[in-house]
Design goal:
With about 200 residues, the chain is of the alpha+beta class. The protein has six helices and eight strands. Strand 2 and strand 3 form a beta hairpin. Helix 1 packs antiparallel against helix 2 and helix 1 runs parallel beside helix 5. It is flat and about 75 Å long.
């Protein structure tokens, strides 16, 4: 949303300023975009493989997972397996009623003894987990970087909610401000040139 709103505002600025200044502004904007994003277009590793080698066997399976690795947190060191649901990695517990949404999840756990539960959810900043309504500590001390937590014996309702980080809050605020500015400029033209542009 922030990128979309910024793109609209940049286009509006270029339209409103004189042509020569708009050309300079456009070139500067393109240059800044390329410079600050060049690192994302640099290949991490080069492999001496043919297309046939790359798209068959184990290499093909790795290729299918490659895109997902771009969006994982640094704690996910070996994200090469797909989890079907939460698992008990230590102790004994029964896990039921697991629901998973984009920004929250929940499950019911019935532990017969001390148990460690690992969820099929990567530990992105900042997950807040509650056990029976109380905030609980979590960790990602596993090779997959998934959320894990320890349970004493008993029955528990475990809930996770993805909280906004400072940068997310800032980005959301800037997006809202950008949208409001666009609406103001669209419905309250401030000069003739803007009115012509809106027509």
């Amino acid at each position: 949303m922030a990128i979309f709103a910024t793109s609209l505002l940049s286009g509006l600025v270029i339209k409103l300023i004189p042509v020569k200044l708009a050309l300079v502004f456009s070139l500067a904007l393109v240059l800044i975009t390329v410079v600050f994003n060049f690192i994302y277009f640099k290949p991490e590793t080069f492999y001496p493989l043919t297309d046939e080698q790359k798209l068959t066997g184990q290499n093909y399976q790795i290729q299918q997972q490659a895109a997902a690795l771009d969006y994982l947190p640094l704690t996910a060191h070996l994200p090469n397996t797909i989890a079907s649901g939460p698992t008990v990695t230590a102790g004994q517990a029964t896990l039921t009623n697991f629901t998973d949404r984009s920004n929250n999840w929940s499950l019911v756990a019935n532990a017969n003894q001390n148990a460690t539960v690992e969820l099929p959810i990567f530990d992105f900043p900042v997950w807040q987990v509650r056990i029976n309504g109380s905030i609980a500590s979590i960790n990602h001390q596993n090779s997959l970087g998934r959320i894990a937590l320890s349970l004493p014996p008993g029955q528990f309702l475990i809930e996770g909610q993805l909280q906004d980080t400072p940068i997310r809050t800032t980005a959301n605020t800037l997006s809202l401000i950008s949208v409001l500015i666009i609406l103001v400029l669209a419905y309250q033209p401030i000069n003739k040139k803007l009115m012509t542009f809106l027509k």
